[in-house]
Amino acid sequence: MIPCRDLNRSFLSTRSFKYMSINLSKGGKFNLTKKEPGLKKVMIGLGWEFKEGNHLDLDASAFLLGSNKKLVADEYFVFYNNLRSPDGSVEHTGDNRTGIGEGDDEMILFNMETVNPSIDEVVVVASIHDAQSRNHNFGLLDDAYIRIVDVETQREILRYDLDAENPLNTEMEFGKLRKEDGEWVFEAIGVGGNKGLQGFIDVYA
Ligand SMILES: [Ca+2]
Ligand SMILES: [Ca+2]
Description:
By secondary structure, the protein is mostly beta strands. About 15% of the residues lie in helices and about 40% in strands. The site of one calcium ion (CA) has 7 residues, from β3.
């Protein structure tokens, strides 16, 4: 049986809604190389709002992993204090500490052409800064999403809206770009935890 995602997609393409992006749900996959021929550089945007009209500092970070699922070197952990990977393929555009305003609050750029060939996965995570001392968690977030945009055309390719299964989580592996037989596939992960950014460092460093 063809998964519903694919049915929707073929429906959309036959109706020529070519600017409509794909909405992924948890576990959903999208082959960027196959579906978007010629795609070179993507912007991974993370947006969020705080329910109570206050501020919440969410941080987007990327772990560039080799085939052993570990960072190829410490400098391949890209976050607010290390904004660029050594190969220049991943760039973080800077820390946003409030999330105020619509649209992307933090952005990570990824160049598929210049990425170090040893990189097999780019794992994108979101973690709440100082979650414990500020008593913040994902339950306080509204409209958190991750989306992928073609940098050249500024067109949104796909989007994954966060559906926090556990509102008490303080960080989440949002999604990953994974190399599969030389093609880049985006996978919506949506797995949360309670160890902060350090929890991911413990796993991937
Ligand atoms: Ca931030
Ligand atoms: Ca926002």
